[in-house]
Amino acid sequence: MATDKYGIAIPHTDSKYVNRSQIEFVSLKSPVKFKNMGNASEDIEVTHVFMIAMSQPHEQAETLAKLMGLFLDEELMQRMYECSSKEEYESILKEKGLI
Q1: pLDDT digits (tens, 9 = 90+) for 48-64
Q2: Do 84 and 72 form a contact (C-beta atoms < 8 A)?
């Protein structure tokens, strides 16, 4: 997915393979090309990767909706890109109700 400023990838798995729900984030120094999920012929230069693993099927849709709210908040997205500690990362996720 691409916003005005950031390319975002959201790799995920089926809940039947997950023991504990979690979200991990990686901020890339250099963009990596991912295929657009809605249009496989389109490449997206990704700088933000949110890996989600939800143990309950309903959690995935809820988490994606909350992530969309985060993606629309340019200030928080910039903070995600610049964050350098687990505490700062968790603080941002808490602000958006993701943890």
Answers
A1: 899 999 999 899 889 99
A2: no
The confidence score (pLDDT) of residue 16 equals: 93
Q: Which two tokens stand for residue 2?
A: 């691409």
> How much of the chain is helix, strand and coil, in % rounded to 5?
35, 35, 25
> 4 pLDDT band (50/70/90 cuts)?
low
In angstroms, rounded to a whole number, what is the distance separating the alpha carbons of residues 71 and 8? 8
Query: What is the residue-averaged pLDDT of the chain?
Result: 87
AA letter at 88 = E
Torsion of CA 5, 88, 70, 72, to 10 degrees: -30
In sequence order, the 6+-apart residues with CB closer than 8 A to the CB of 66 are 96, 97, 98
Whole-angstrom CA distances from 88 to 32, 48, 61, 93 are 24, 16, 25, 9
